[in-house]
Design goal:
The complex is a heterodimer of chains A (183) and B (497). Chain A has 183 residues and is an alpha/beta fold. Chain A is built from six helices and five strands; from the N terminus they run βααβαββαβαα. Chain B has 15 helices and 18 strands. Chain B starts with a strand and ends with a strand. Classes of the chains: A alpha/beta (183), B alpha+beta (497).
Chain lengths: 183, 497
Amino acid sequence: MSVGSSADRSAVTPVPTGVTLVVGLGNPLLADDGVGWRVVEAVRGRLAGDPALTADPAFADVELDHLAVGGLSLMERLVGYRRAILVDAMVTGEHPPGTVRRFSIADIPGREATHLDSAHDASLAVALAAGRSLGADLPAEIAIVAVEAVRVDEFAEVLTPAVAAAIPAAVEVVLAAIGETVG
Amino acid sequence: MTRITIDPITRLEGHGKIEIFLDPAGEVERTYFQVPELRGFEQFCVGRPVEEMPVLVNRICGVCPEAHHMAAAKAADAVYHVDPPRPAKLLRELLYSAFYVADHTTHFYALSGPDFVVGPDAPVAERNLLGVLKKVGSDAGGRVIETRRRCHRVVEIIGGRAIHPCTSVPGGLTKGITAEERAEIEETARRMIDFGAFSLQLFDDLILGNPGYVEMITGPMYQHETYSMGLVDGAGKVNFYDGRVRIVGPDGALHGEYAPADYREWIAERVEPWTYLKFPYLRKVGWDGFTDGAASGVYSATPLSRLNVADGMATPNAQAAFERFYETLAPGPGAGPGGKRMVHGRLAMHWARLVELTYAAERMLELVSDPEITSDRVRAVPTERPTEGVGTVEAPRGTLTHHYWTDERGILTKVNLVVGTTNNYAPIAMSVERAARSLIHGGEVVGEGLLNRIEMAFRAYDPCFGCATHSLPGQMPLEVVIRDAAGGVVDVRRQFC
């Protein structure tokens, strides 16, 4: 956990952090499972290389990160931000590989995105509710951008072609989400 | 034959499921337990330098990366025939102890808590961490979060990064710690010792004070009299970071004790036609099917089995908790190490975790108080030609072994991993079957608790299947389809789907 390291700070009170956190979720060694990381890397490249974007106030205070954890650890990472955008793989089998979808945490249909939850602690929804009940300052808005994956159970560092081809579209969805007015 | 299918993994169709076959009288004949497994890790590693492994294996899964990091670091030491200096070993074990406190805390409050603190028959919507916090109060909740934060901070100080440490290299560590960092860790250790005592008291008040829960722990539904495995130190006490592997029989008699590098002389793997999982068993006992007893080579490697194999705990509060554990659940002298009787109720694992949590916290304080802990003598540079090596630690979910072979340049030519949960595949399958047998009679599910009772069988082991369950949800979706003899669906039950 990257916040609140001083000894006498209460458990979930954050060090003040940025406005917007964008997190790529997944395992970069598990083929398409790493698509969230790749999308966030591509977002980083766009932000670095596009002066028009960096001049936009909505992009002034954006932090990018990668995580291979869900549940409580993910909730803990979100403490202190006004909003979060989570980029993940999804395996629904109902959409063509590479399909990009955007959800709100409030209306996420079941468990479509792969890494929000952890079988070893809690679902993200429960972790967020638990964090809030303990006074944690958690984002009011949590958007999820998910890419339909094909191969997620075999070790490889490359994405399958349809998923790799979806990265630019996913980047645009993430940039559009960042560009929206913070509520 | 009637078939009941429980499919716990809705997103990975065709991978993970439980199938329950009934005989013509409608009694459970057999359950088949299949889970997803990641493929190709060993091949993925071949051709890479062995010193990359401690960082690479962090990425096998997001649940116990610290355990894989440690096993890989120790295996890489062995490949290079190098013994890290004492301060490096102290620091590694200190990191590992902090990881244990965080992992056991998380499991107890987020996974055991819903069953024992909230209750197994509570509404599904309340059987989660939030329900636990409502019951135990926000003070306890704050302590859980503080424990996680502080322990992750210790991992970050020593391991260079939170969650995914990167400082272990063949022969030791890339850096030591400062006096200021030492002081912060000492404060954390003291708080964790308090937290261990608090958690044991909570267990006393909420669980041991409830006869229904005690009956659940000691009753027959989750009892399996298997062999037990765990690492012990030179005095026969539980150790997570190092030691010899000890195995005791169902009655507690010593089966054997060996250096981890000799694991293949003791452990064999059973292949079954219905799954790609391999079921480890004791080579010198032999495979006798999914059954318990001294004639069956099925063994368990869990928090409970670690206590079962040990003479005791190496620290005072943990030793007191250990004694209370056995006096409560298996009073009287027995044939086990230290003259105790074995405990075989799988749900006792939840209590065993708190005993271990207390030990890990006390061990943190011992280690951080060692005069050498801030030494900068943290690495012995390897000079010998690399060949082959085994590294073993106790992962929270069972004995974890990494075995590497390299060429003369230290490039991996072969990798073999026996991960914690793998040890327990056969006992998990047995626990699921036992739960099903208890709850299905005459072709019908008796009562409403089937899904959660089967989940509880899983959950006690906190299984990390193929190190893949980071992609599974915290509340396991279960679907039970009951079919009549002609294959028609007569009943469907779901939760979290």
